[in-house]
């Protein structure tokens, strides 16, 4: 990848009606670890199904998580201090992830 030796961790959640297979075929090969989440709407693709296609697209580690605190815990578990974390896929996962990141450690 182009992050100067830094690991790339993807947190990805998509809608069922989007081209998630193509998205993964582009993003997965540059990732060190992919954390799949379900987008929080009726249109959201199940995280297990997304993880299945991620595993087909890459030799990177692939795991599933729930949006929010659990996902932040997983990010911290799987990343080194200088790794890059990219939250991508559907915009619907950004708000719950942002809220979890900003409130992390305040509980």
Short structural summary:
The chain is an alpha/beta fold and 107 residues long. It contains four helices and four strands; from the N terminus they run βαβαβαβα. Helix 1 links the parallel strand 1 and strand 2.
Strand content: 15-25%
Q: C-alpha Rg, in Å?
A: 13 Å
Spatial separation of the terminal alpha carbons: 35 Å
Q: Tell me about the largest β-sheet.
A: 4 strands, parallel
- SS summary, helix count: 4
Structural class: alpha/beta
Total beta strand runs: 4
Low-confidence parts lasting 5 or more residues at pLDDT below 50? none
Q: Name the overall outline.
A: globular
What's the order of the H and E elements?
A: EHEHEHEH
Average pLDDT for all residues: 91
Helix content range: 25-40%
**Which strands sit side by side, in order, in the main sheet?**
3-2-1-4
Please describe what this structure looks like.
It is built from four helices and four strands. A four-stranded parallel beta sheet has the order 3-2-1-4, sandwiched between helices. The chain is 36% helix and 19% strand. Strand 2, helix 2 and strand 3 form a beta-alpha-beta unit. The model has no long low-confidence stretch (mean pLDDT 91). The protein is an alpha/beta fold and 107 residues long.
